[in-house]
Amino acid sequence: MIDLTHTLTTSTEAPMSLWPGHPRFQMTRVASVPEQHATLTAISLGSHTGTHIDAPNHYIADGLSIDKYDLNKLMGRALVIDVRGKKARELITWEDMKRWEGEMKDGVIVLICTGWSQYWGKDHYEEHPFIDINAAKKLVEKGVRVIGCDTLSPDEMCSPTAEVHKVILRAGGAIAENLRGIEEVLELKDPVVSLLPLKLDDCDGSPIRAIAWSANVA
Ligand SMILES: [Zn+2]
How far is the CA of 208 from the centre of ligand 1 (A)? Predict the structure, then answer.
């Protein structure tokens, strides 16, 4: 089982990357054994803090919320697009993705591997490569609805238009962000991925425990 999830932590030695202005992850021990009957922790975070998924209503006013989202779409065959050669803030074009065109179809979850998760927690994490709008449109045209990336966003950092988000979410898709270890999925034969969210009432996204495994293993 490959864990595609960054740890939710309050550590200052290994800090989490965070979208500017989003709520930080907080964790407070409210009771501990043996002093108390049981150990219990209060946790608090934004719906887009850490490894998470965007629901359609994150950008589309009448889009589905995460609790209503079809779970069948969030678990399925993974297709890794390996674009690890990309530099900081470089565009990921359809030209870069075309060689996997034959495998892009309805139900396939496309994972964009930029290798950027190595910069998690560092300033350079924000300088990630991002998807060209035409490449996003092509993915949707091919039937792809769910994508995942190892960056803060499939769009350019702090893009005022977030057009890749809108193309995917308007088509009823969902976007997993801040994944890690996508390069390890390349080693799997017939990879399958799961991006299941918490059932948060009318919410625009959710933290996920993203995992991948080989369909050949029971
Ligand atoms: Zn998000």
Answer: 11
The pair of structure tokens assigned to 78 is: 């993974």
Cβ atoms 54, 204 nearer than 8 A: yes
State pLDDT tens for residues 93-142: 999 999 999 999 999 999 999 999 999 999 999 999 999 999 999 999 99
Whole-number pLDDT of residue 218:
57
Q: How many residues are there in the chain?
A: 218
Distance 36 CA to ligand 1 centre (A): 37
Distance CA 173, CA 175 (A): 7
The predicted structure's pLDDT at residue 183: 98
* CA 128 – CA 115 distance, rounded (Å): 9
Instruction: Please give the angle made by the CA atoms of 63, 18 and 32, to the nearest 5 degrees.
Output: 100
Which residue is it, tokens 């934004």?
46
Question: Measured in angstroms, how far is the CA atom of residue 38 from the centroid of ligand 1?
Answer: 34
Ligand 1 centroid to residue 21 C-alpha, Å:
13
Neighbours of 206 (CB within 10 A): 21
121 vs 132: CA distance, rounded Å: 25
d(CA 56, CA 117): 24
Contact of 110 with 147, CB cutoff 8 Å: yes
Nearest Cα neighbor of 4 from 44, 38, 69, 53 is 53
C-alpha of residue 35 to centroid of ligand 1, in Å:
39
